[in-house]
Specification:
CATH topology: Rossmann fold
Distance between the termini: 28 Å
Radius of gyration: 14 Å
Strand content: 15-25%
Strand order of the largest sheet: 2-1-3-4-5
Helix content: 40-55%
Order of helices and strands: EHEHEHEHEH
Structural class: alpha/beta
Number of helices: 5
Largest sheet: 5 strands, parallel
């Protein structure tokens, strides 16, 4: 659950399947997050460059620009590289060894997934990110 004393985290949900975007966005909004959505990686990059996004949830398999290509583009941008990425993937579509680490994917969640478990994963990632940010400011 979101910390009630701070502003809600902004999460970008990226998937070419509208029903997945709808379900994930609804669950995240119900959990107190601000949610932006995109139907592909190109649209996501545009949103990322114009809005203060705290975390990206993206599908692996998308037309135009895959989730890996989106994460790779983010990792090459000094501002976007610090945004955690949670990758959604169908069980048959596995990442190659080291691929997630090479583009800073924080977590991989396999479809089908429990929306409640996904929210819990996101809350853990955001808490870890806040801890890292606090540690950087103190150091």
């Amino acid at each position: 659950m979101q910390d009630t004393h701070s502003k809600p985290a902004r999460i970008l949900v990226v998937d070419d399947e509208a029903h997945i975007v709808h379900v994930v966005a609804l669950k995240l909004r119900n959990a107190g997050f601000q949610v932006e959505t995109a139907g592909d990686g190109d649209e996501a990059l545009t949103l990322l460059q114009s809005r203060g996004i705290d975390l990206v949830v993206t599908d692996l398999q998308m037309p135009m620009m895959s989730g890996i290509e989106l994460a790779r583009a983010m990792s090459k941008d000094a501002v976007l590289a610090n945004i955690p990425v949670l990758m959604l993937t169908a069980r048959g579509h596995l990442l190659r060894d080291g691929e997630a680490d090479s583009v800073h994917i924080a977590r991989v969640v396999h479809k089908p997934f429990s929306p409640r478990a996904l929210v819990a994963e996101i809350e853990q990632l955001l808490a870890s990110q806040r801890d890292r940010d606090t540690h950087r400011r103190v150091a």
